[in-house]
C-alpha cells in the first residue's frame, strides 16, 4: 500500500497505561516511496513506523520507538497551536419560522437534546466541508490581563470561580507554556476562546451580566442549563469587528456590561492532531492541542453562519448526526464522530448536564491518536488500545501494515480505536474502561445496508 492509497483522514480540531501489543509481522515501504519515507521497525509491536522525511541530507537515522513513554513530547517539525472547541447541547426546539424564516422546528429527538454542527467552507485549508463544533485557535487577546477588570470584583483570579484546578491527565502538551505572568490561566483563556469563536462563526453569544454568579444550594438539585444572550443591536457590525481583531470581543463584552459565561462550559476532552491526517502527505503544518468544552442550553439559540469560514449549520441529535454521516449528507472528522457517539450514552439534556457537574473536578484526558495505515483503510488508535504506543517518537510518525482492517481487528481483543474504511464509513471499537469518571462511546459498526 502506498501513502496516497490510504483513506483520507481529517485533522482533529485537538488525546492510558502502557498496553500489551501485538507481534503481527510488519511490511516494507514500497520502493517508489523510499525517497520520501524512512522505514522503522518497532520491536514492541512488529508493525512498521513511517517516519518523516529528513529535513536535511545527512540527518541521523531515527532509533526504533520504545514501548513506553520515555520523556516529554518533542514538538519536532510540526507547528503547534492551542485551540478550543465548544460542544453546544440544547434541549427544546430551535426557533420557528416566525422568528428566523426557517422551516417549522422538528419534534424533539429521542435523546432529548441536539448538538450544534457547523459546516466549514470548501475554501478552508483546514477540514474543508467538514461538519464540526464551533471553535478555533487561541488568540493572545483571549488571555489578556485586560479581562481582569471586566471579571472583577466577583470573579477574580486565580480561577475566576471555576473551583479547584482539576488534574491534568494523559499525553503532555507539545505546546510550550506561555511565559506571560500577567495573562489569564489557560482554563479561563481557552473558555474565552471557545465563546469568542462561537460568536464569530455562529453568531451565538454565551455571555452573562456582570455581577455575582448564582450558586447552587447544597442539598438541592444542580443548577439548570442556561440560555444564550439575545442578539444585541448592531450584532453584524460587532461580529465583523471581532473577526478582524479578537481584542474587540473584550470591547463588546464591556459595551454589554457582560462577561463570557465561562462557568457554563464544562471540561470534556482534549485532542491532539495526529501526525498523518489527510492520506495524501505528511502533516507538517497546522496541528492543534484542542480543549473540547461542553455547554448545555435550555433551547437552541438562533444560529447565523458567518458565510466565510462557516457556510451552514444544523442542530442534530447524536443519532441523527450519525445517520447523516453514513448517508453521505455530512462529513464528520474523527474527533467529532467519537464525541457524538460518546454523547449518545445520555438519554436527556438533564442527564448530560448533571454528569458534567458531577465530574467537574476529575479532569480530562489529553489524547494523541496514533495513525495506523492498513491495506484498505486507516485506524486511529487511542490510549488503552493494545496497539497504542505511549512514546514520544509517535508525535511525528505513523504505523503501517499490509494487513487489511479485518485482519488487524481479528487478531486483537483490547480495543480503543476509530476505524475509517472510507470518508463516510467509520466505526468505533471500544472494549477498555474509561478513566476519571468519564464515559466512552459504545462499540459502533455501521450496517453495510446503510452504506
What layout of secondary structure does this protein have?
Layout: E1 38-41, E2 48-51, E3 79-90, H1 97-100, E4 114-120, E5 131-132, E6 135-137, H2 147-151, E7 168-170, H3 186-202, E8 207-209, H4 235-244, H5 247-255, E9 258-260, E10 266-272, E11 286-297, E12 310-316, H6 318-326, H7 334-343, H8 349-358, E13 364-367, E14 370-373, E15 378-381, E16 397-400, H9 405-411, E17 416-422, E18 425-430
Parallel strand pairs: 3-11, 7-13, 10-13, 14-16
Antiparallel strand pairs: 1-2, 2-16, 3-4, 3-6, 4-5, 4-12, 8-9, 10-11, 14-15, 15-17, 17-18
Helix pairs in contact: 4-5, 6-7
Describe the structure.
This protein has helices at 97-100, 147-151, 186-202, 235-244, 247-255, 318-326, 334-343, 349-358, 405-411; strands at residues 38-41, 48-51, 79-90, 114-120, 131-132, 135-137, 168-170, 207-209, 258-260, 266-272, 286-297, 310-316, 364-367, 370-373, 378-381, 397-400, 416-422, 425-430. It is of the alpha+beta class. Strands 3, 4, 5, 6, 7, 10, 11, 12 and 13 form a 9-stranded mixed sheet that branches. A 7-stranded mixed sheet has the order 1-2-16-14-15-17-18, covered by helices on one side.
Amino acid at each position: 500500500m502506498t501513502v496516497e492509497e490510504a483513506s483520507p483522514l481529517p485533522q482533529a480540531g485537538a488525546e492510558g497505561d502502557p498496553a500489551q501489543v501485538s507481534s503481527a509481522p510488519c511490511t516494507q515501504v514500497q520502493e517508489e516511496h523510499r525517497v520520501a519515507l524512512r522505514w522503522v521497525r518497532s520491536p514492541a509491536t512488529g508493525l512498521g513506523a513511517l517516519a518523516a522525511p529528513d529535513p536535511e541530507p545527512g540527518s541521523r537515522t531515527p532509533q526504533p520507538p520504545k514501548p513506553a513513554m520515555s520523556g516529554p513530547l518533542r514538538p519536532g517539525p510540526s507547528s503547534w497551536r492551542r485551540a478550543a472547541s465548544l460542544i453546544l447541547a440544547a434541549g427544546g426546539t430551535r426557533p420557528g419560522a416566525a422568528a428566523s424564516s426557517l422551516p417549522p422546528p422538528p419534534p424533539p429527538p429521542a435523546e432529548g437534546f441536539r448538538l450544534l454542527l457547523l459546516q466549514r467552507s470548501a475554501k478552508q485549508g483546514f477540514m474543508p466541508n467538514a461538519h464540526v463544533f464551533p471553535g478555533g485557535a487561541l488568540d493572545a487577546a483571549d488571555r489578556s490581563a485586560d479581562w481582569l477588570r471586566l471579571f472583577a470584583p466577583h470573579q477574580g483570579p486565580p480561577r475566576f470561580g471555576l473551583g479547584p484546578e482539576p488534574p491534568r491527565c494523559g499525553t503532555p502538551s507539545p505546546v510550550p507554556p506561555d511565559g506571560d505572568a500577567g495573562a489569564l490561566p489557560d482554563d479561563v483563556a481557552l473558555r474565552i476562546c471557545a465563546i469568542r469563536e462561537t460568536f464569530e462563526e455562529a453568531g451565538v453569544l454565551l455571555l452573562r451580566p456582570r455581577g455575582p454568579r448564582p450558586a447552587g444550594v447544597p442539598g438541592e438539585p444542580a443548577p439548570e442549563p442556561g440560555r444564550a444572550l439575545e442578539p444585541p443591536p448592531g450584532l453584524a457590525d460587532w461580529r465583523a469587528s471581532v473577526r478582524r481583531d479578537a481584542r474587540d470581543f473584550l470591547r463588546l463584552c464591556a459595551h454589554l456590561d457582560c462577561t463570557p459565561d465561562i462557568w457554563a462550559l464544562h471540561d470534556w476532552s482534549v485532542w491532539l492532531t495526529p501526525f498523518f491526517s489527510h492520506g495524501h502527505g505528511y502533516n507538517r503544518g497546522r496541528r492543534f492541542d484542542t480543549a473540547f468544552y461542553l455547554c448545555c442550553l435550555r433551547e437552541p439559540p438562533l444560529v447565523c453562519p458567518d458565510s466565510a469560514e462557516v457556510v451552514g449549520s444544523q442542530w442534530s441529535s447524536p443519532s441523527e448526526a450519525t445517520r447523516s454521516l453514513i448517508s453521505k449528507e455530512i462529513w464528520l472528522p474523527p474527533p467529532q464522530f467519537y464525541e457524538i457517539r460518546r454523547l449518545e450514552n445520555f438519554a436527556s439534556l438533564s442527564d448530560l448536564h448533571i454528569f458534567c457537574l458531577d465530574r467537574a473536578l476529575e479532569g480530562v484526558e489529553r489524547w494523541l491518536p496514533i495513525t495506523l495505515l492498513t491495506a484498505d483503510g486507516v485506524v486511529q488508535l487511542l490510549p488503552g488500545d493494545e496497539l497504542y504506543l505511549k512514546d514520544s517518537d509517535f508525535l511525528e510518525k505513523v504505523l503501517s501494515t499490509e494487513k487489511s482492517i479485518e485482519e488487524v481487528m481479528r487478531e486483537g481483543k483490547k480495543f480503543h480505536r476509530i476505524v475509517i474504511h472510507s470518508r463516510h464509513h467509520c466505526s468505533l471499537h471500544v472494549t477498555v474502561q474509561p478513566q476519571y469518571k468519564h464515559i466512552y462511546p459504545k462499540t459502533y459498526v455501521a450496517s453495510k445496508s446503510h452504506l
